[in-house]
Amino acid sequence: MYDGAGQVRALAGLRGRTPRGSRVAQSLRVLAGLVSVGLATSIPSVGGQVRPPTASDAATAGPRLIDLAPFDQITLDKANESRVLRVEPLPAELRRPGIRRPSTEKLRIRLVDTGREYEVSWGHIAKVELYEQLVLAQTWQFLEEGRLEDAFDQIAFLLRYYPRTNGLVEARQRYLYLSARAMADAQQPEAALGLLEELLSLQPPFQPRAGELPVGELLTTTADALVRAAIDAGQYAAARALHDRLVRRYRTELGPQAQVWQQTLVKLATTQRDAARQHLAAGRLPQAWEAVMRMRAVWPDVPEGAALVEEITRRYPRVVVAVESLARQADARSLLDRAARRTSRLVAPPLWSLEGLGSEGGLYQSLQARGEREPAGQGLTLRFSAAVDPSRIVQYALGLVQGARRGDSAIEACWGELLGEVRLSGPQELKLTLRQPHVLPEALLAVMPPPEARGADRSHPWEGAGRYQPVEASADQVRYVVREGGASGPAEIIEQVFDDPQQAIQSLLRGEVDVIERVLPADLPVLADRSDVTVLPYAASSVHVLLVRSSDPYLRSATFRRALVYGTDRERLLKEGLLRGQSLPGCQVISGPFAASTSREDTAYASDAQIEPRPYDPPLALALRLVAEQEVAAAARHLSQPVPKLSPLRLAHPANELARIACRGLAQQWEQIGIPCTLMELPPGQCDAEPGTCDLVYAELAAWEPLVDALRLFGPQGLVPQASPAVAALARQAARARNWPQARQHLLLLHRLVHEELPLLPLWQWRDHWACRRGIDGIQSPRLDLYQQLQQWRIDPFPLAGRSP
Fold it and tell me: Roughly how many angstroms between the first and final C-alpha of the chain, as a whole number?
């Protein structure tokens, strides 16, 4: 470097290299070039402290430093004309602000522009500026110029790679303040409030410059705009929640404005309270319930509000249920449609319904009749309650006879083979005589099509004689009101669709929803520790399978279907994808169409425990896929037809989160064995696909009574039409079984045959959970579906009010 006399003393070339000509002269030329060309735009110094940028700094901000390769900056002393060098980043031991070493010690540097290395005496170094300090200094300039987006990028860069940079907190606070002010000026109070809350969370407290709006005043005006906008839009619960949160966190900053908000909300709540009183006095109970709920949403602690809530809830108990989809029809017998089964309990309950599972078949009950089997199993006597019109009993008897004669379905054909005589033995008594003993005739009666439906006009999907009737319906909500003369239970049930399970959880915790029909395993830990929420499993497991829904030649091949099963890591999809690492009873991979035993009490009479599920074996799956392609090609050539190509499988699934997660995993795993797959989401409420619209459909089977459900699956016109004659024959034999050993023998053989032929692809069995708020009594007993024993529900007269999760 230069000394005062202009002599070169400090600069030495890289050891081991001898540049052409004079080393000193060449070093001078290189250094001069760096100063005159390489650093045409200088970077302002920050030293060890962050200083506010000046006007001259703002004029020289230049391009963003984070877009350049990292470098440090060394400024020489005045004896060397204060020249500035850009050098490659210094070693870690020297990367401290204000670093100084003995003046005689040398620092080895590599120039950024040329890559040449030199040694510089510390005595000739006036200042060392690290890359992160340079970036921070430029960030201050961007803030002064109003280049907030560039400032954000640089602050984010420093927070990620240099979080300990001295002065970074102050720059971040300045950015948040300026951005919040800009968002407020642009009429975007939501964004402004978020920025201000982040600013207030940082330490030390931020102080604006002289003449700038204080943070507390900016927070107050921004929050006031949000609260008043929510009130004007009628979003009272949102306004109150925002009020509560802001007061809890920023009472000092808000000052008297918080009291103004509260007075406004209390006034609105008082108006709703008075309206509820008027409706109650006039006997308009639904309108009174709506008004008191609005009152509760606006301000739950309004004077005399709690007593009014108690009175209205006692006189008009109402339940809001979060569901995944609304029913398109009421069908208690559906194997696929949970919403249809659920709704049937309300509007069109069957005469016989499955109420529980026992060691020997299901337990069947009826609200209108009591059945008594003959000791030899060759007859069934039905004693109807006195409230049943005798003409309906005659109609029911005629329907049983007509169904047996017609045999329109596999179940009716089986019933026709069994039924011998139907005789009215009394005003309220019907005796059915069978041609041969049957192990469980109630199971057949429970899945028989409703006799009163034959020949009747069924154009209205809600026709039925249930305790409830729908009064209002939209795309995402249905209201069911108890019919006149209805006995105990809720007076009204509202089913509300929630596409996002998290929204349903939050609504339950806020008291806006009373029951969630299905809680996903990932959400169970969230609710498990809540003392105000009850979470319980349903009484039976559903079976998740893939049903074939096209005539694709590859899917007709059992070899190809085996390839799909071997190429599916069902255990991983179940435990990691769906259960999220949890272990829940009733959830396990299966090998057949019916649920396996999960405990000693659970007999699962149709499942052979010796048949293990096929393991995950990608090499075998790939080999089977290749064999299937050869088989399909050979069959096509035999028929002198073109060889079909393996097109992407179209996998359809219902519109719920559980099916989405499962099908995404299936598609990814099949891609790995060379079987492409595209996903199709069915319309809301639809559980099966129209023929030809897809190749496979993901289904959740409620096959809880295999004795008759096997025939509904594999028999004529069943859900699995491609089942072989042998499988269909075993299903018919099981449905006509005389005793349980015989039924079990047929069903275990059917399990083994289905395992070999794969007319459907078994995935896993699944035990769903439901949740309700504490305060609804009579709902905690084991149940197959949500509205079972609905008449026992008792609504707490003190519903959750004004609660935040």
Answer: 68
Write out the H or E segment, with its range, that includes residue 466.
none
Q: For the whole model, what pTM was predicted?
A: 0.74
- Please tell me the distance from the alpha carbon of residue 242 to that of residue 136, in angstroms, as a whole number: 35
Most confident by average pLDDT, 194-208, 400-414, 443-457: 194-208
Nearest to 258 by CA among 274, 276, 270, 240: 240
Q: Which residues contact 29 (CB under 8 A, 6 or more apart)?
A: none
Residue 595 to residue 767: CA distance in whole angstroms: 10
176 to each of 182, 184, 207, how far by Cα in Å? 10, 12, 12
Average of per-residue pLDDT across 663-669: 96
Residue with tokens 């060890």: 48
Which residue, among 650, 653, 652, 649, has the nearest Cα to 673 in the 3D structure?
649
Q: Closest Cα to residue 61, out of 163, 130, 151, 132? A: 151
**Crossing angle for the helix pair 725-735 and 706-714, nearest 10 degrees?**
150
Selection from 674, 802, 686, 786 nearest residue 319 by Cα: 786
- Secondary structure (H, E, C), 714-783: HCCCCCCCCCCHHHHHHHHHHHCCCCHHHHHHHHHHHHHHHHHHCCEEEEEEECCEEEEECCEECCCCCC
- pLDDT above 70 covers a percentage of the chain that reads 88
The kind and range of the H/E element at 370 are: strand 369-373
What six digits make up the tokens of 536?
A: 């319980």
Could you read off the pLDDT of 164-221 as tens digits, one per residue?
A: 999 999 999 999 999 999 999 999 999 999 999 999 999 999 999 999 999 999 999 9
Torsions phi, psi of 370, nearest 5?
-125, 130
* Contact predicate 76/85, CB 8 Å: yes
CA distance 319 to 792: 13
- For helices 410-418 and 706-714, angle between their N-to-C axes, nearest 10 degrees: 130
| CA dist., res. 369 & res. 350, Å (int) | 11
Residue 393 has pLDDT above 70, yes or no: yes
Residue 485 CB neighbours (<10 A):
6
Q: What's residue 97's pLDDT?
A: 83
Decide: 418 and 736 in contact? Cβ < 8 Å. Answer: yes
Distance of CA 221 to the CA centre of its chain: 36
Answer left, alpha or beta for residue 458, where phi above 0 means left and psi between -120 and 50 means alpha: alpha
Please list the residues that pair with 771 across neighbouring strands: 516, 535
As a whole number of angstroms, the distance between CA 97 and CA 50 comes to: 11
> CB–CB of 121/105 below 8 Å?
yes
Angle between helix 168-185 and 189-200 (nearest 10): 160
CA torsion angle for 596, 599, 600, 605 (degrees, to 10)? Answer: -20
Of 181, 198, 130, whose CA–CA distance to 158 is shortest?
130
- Return the closest-CA partner of residue 109 out of 96, 128, 126: 128
For residue 72, count CB atoms less than 10 angstroms from its CB and return exposed for 0-12, middle for 13-18, buried for 19 or more: buried
Q: Does residue 20 surpass a pLDDT of 70? A: no
- The two tokens of residue 363 are 């337990």
Q: Which amino acid is at 703?
A: A
Measured distance CA(302)–CA(276) in Å, rounded: 13
Answer for the pair 783, 537: CB distance below 8 angstroms, yes or no. Answer: no
Q: Which residue has the tokens 């004689």?
A: 465
Q: How confident is the model at residue 486 (pLDDT cuts 50, 70, 90)?
A: low
Amino acid in the structure at residue 120: V
Task: Tell me the pLDDT tens digit for each residue of 256-303.
Answer: 999 999 999 999 999 999 999 999 999 999 899 989 888 988 888 888
**33 pLDDT above the threshold of 60:** no
